Amino acid sequence: MSDAGILEYDYPKKAIRAFSRLIIQKQWQKKEIEKNIDFKLPSSIDELKTNLKNETKFCSSDLTADILDAFKVNNKRDYLVESLDDVEKIYSNFKS
Question: What is the pLDDT of residue 56?
């Protein structure tokens, strides 16, 4: 079968997995892209541009997080915790 270019599988599970991925791909191709995206630059864009110009080669994790925050993209931040008070302050930020 392989010589004839026909797919063959030694286990049904592999065939089912391959077929399901084809279905998922086909469904993805049928999706329409939203054309009217309401995109507004954040008010802090000038500050972000200045900070980007000051970076040498790569964005720092803090600047990256600031950019994502400005565009209201959920992201994870790194926090240095040295005391229980620090944990409580950070936790209070998550609740709000």
Answer: 63
